[in-house]
Structures are given as C-alpha cells and as structure tokens.
Amino acid sequence: MLKKLQFKFIVITMFALGSLMLVQTMTVNAISIYQKDVKMKEILQVITANNGVLPKEYDRDGNIYDDLFNPFGKFEITLETPYSTRYFVVEMQGNVVTRLSTENIAAVNDSKALEYACQIYGTDPGFGTVDAFRYLYSVNGNKSMMVFLYFENEVREIATLFSISLTVSVVTLFVLLVIIYLLSKNALKPVAESIKKQKQFITDAGHELKTPLTIISADAEVLEMCGGENEWTASIKNQTSRMNVLVKNLVELTKLNEAQDTSERTNFILSDAVIETACDFESRAKINDQSLIFSVSPGIRYFGNEAEIRQLVSILCDNAIKYADKGGTIKISLYKSGTSTYLDVFNTAEYVDPSSVSKLFDRFYRADSSRSRETGGYGIGLSIAKAIVDRHKGKIKAIANGTKEITFRVTL
Predict the structure, then answer these.
(1) d(CA 76, CA 411)
(2) 24 and 121 share a domain?
(3) What integer pLDDT is reported at residue 65 of this predicted model?
C-alpha cells in the first residue's frame, strides 16, 4: 500500500511540475516569437515609410534599458540595424516595375525578387509571409511598394531557443524526479508509521480478544451444563463464534496487506483448484435452490500461492451464494485470453445497486446490511479477496450490467 501511495505521490507531483514547466517553456517561446514578429513588422514599416530605405540615422526615445524587463516593449532601431538587416524592395506603378532594389541582400537576385513580387501583387495589402521572407505590401493609388525582409536567422534563433528551453526543462524534470523520489520517503514517513501502528493494533487486538472470547465461550458451556441450554446461552455462543471469525479475518487481512510478500509460490493447475474449491459449495447452492454452473477451461496453469488462490475462489463463491436470490443462478468461469487468465464469478440477485459497485471492496462495506446480518456477513470477505489479488499483481472488479445480476472478474 505504501509503495502505491508513494508512486501516486510522485506521479501527481511530477504531473503538476511537468505541466508548469510545459506552460513556462511554451510561454517563453511564444513571447520570443511575438518579439521577433514585432521587430520585423517595425522594420518593414520603417523601410516603407522611408521610401524603401532603412535609415542609418535615427532618434532614440528614452534609454536603451527602459524596456529591458518588458517583453512586450516597442522595438527600437539602432545604428547597427541597417547593417544586420537583409531585405529587398520592389515598387510598381500599375503593372510596370519602377524600382527593384536588391543591394541589401545577397541571397536574392533581381529575377528571383520579381518572382516574389508577382506572387503577392494584387493580393490584399498588409503583412504576410512567403518562403523565408516577411513582407509588407502597401498600395497608394496605382502605386504599390513591396518590402521583403529575410527572417531565416530569426527562425533559427527561435528553434535554438525552443531546443535549449525544452532540453533544460527535461533535464530539470529528471533532476526533480530524483529529488522527489528521495524526499517522498521522508514525506510519507508519518503515513507509514500510521499504517504500521494500525496493523500492529489490529494484530495485538486480535490476540488480546482471543482470550476473553475463549473464556466467554467456555463460561457459556458451563452455564449450559449447570442450567441446561437456553436461548441466552445459545445467543452468547453464536455471537462469540461470530466475533472469533471476525477477529480471524481482520488479522488475516492485515497479514495479506503486509508490504513484503514471502508466501510460497508454485506452478499449479489453476483449473483443478477452481473446480475443487467451487464444488464444496454445491450443497449450499442446492439448499437455496440455486443453480451452480461451471465453465472452466481445462489445463490452465498459474504460478502463485495455491492456498491463497483457493481462498480467493472460496470467498467469491461464498459471496455469490449469500447474495444470489433464491432459485437464482451462479456461474463460475475460468478462461485465458492472450497472456491473461480470467476468473469470473457471476450470480443473479434480487437487486444490485450500480452506484455501490465501486465500494464493494471497502472494509466493512455491505450493500444490504439487513441481508448481511441474515447471512452472517461482515463486509470484509471481498477486502481479503482484493488483498490476495493485489499480492499476485492482478486486478479484481465488480461488473453490474443490470439491476439483478453482478459479476466479479479477476484478472491474473
């Protein structure tokens, strides 16, 4: 139980941190892309406003560090911007090219520049993207200007930033995983101590209760020898017997939930174990006028603790007979599908509340308290069944497809 709790703690913590790191990484890269786009638009607007030329002189507003910590601050052109910016300009009057300027870029010649201009000519004016260029298309009467800004370097910078931030995030998450794993043991120490004390209390209480229960049972027998059997002594013996069974089940459940499983495991024929165990309930089924049906595939083998598996089958069969309606049907099925082995215990019932199915494996939970008192149930048998399945790394669940039938399915 503690290992499962530790695993859940680590998963939840890592999911929260991973989500936070993902949001942080995506936000940083989104802001970077936004800044690059703002920068390119600003340069395109300046070139367009200055008749297709990026000015080498400028007027700075404020200090260079004013917007240092403002990711959404306005981009300012510096003295170095004209020398680090690659662009070309195409001006047209009607369908005639009146200006073709490619001296500020080496990757594009005049013919290639005309090809790009033809692609966007006649489209809606404004910003756009074509290949590795961001452009601004402006129209004034029959005159138009197309400014193309090369942004492959910006794309490379964005890709590099994303790669670095993603790598740092993954490494950070791995380091955090190691730290959380080491610290989780200390964080769960109070829980571990509480579980240990709870188990110790149940074990000690079970041993302590055995003595008074034995004395009460013996005293009841003495009273019967002295004054004869009556309803009071019979009730004392009956309740004492119930308490003995309950204490035994509680101690057994505590042992099954121990962290270390040192039980002996062997490779045995599961099919034979299921049939032999379930056959012991045939007489009880006949008394209740219930039909006990077997659908067990022969020769299925399983590696596990045979005694515990037989106890599992016994608990499920006992539960089915207790809660099946009079004259109802109980079906025991065992079959393989792929690499898994399935044990199904089906029974009809007077009524099955679908909302209670998920609680059936809780300790002391009883779907029908009055019926449980009649049949002698304690609401602990299915908890023991689940503990046995968990020890064998399997799964158990209750399936209620209708309101008058239920199936307990064990996957091994």
Answers:
(1) 67
(2) yes
(3) 46
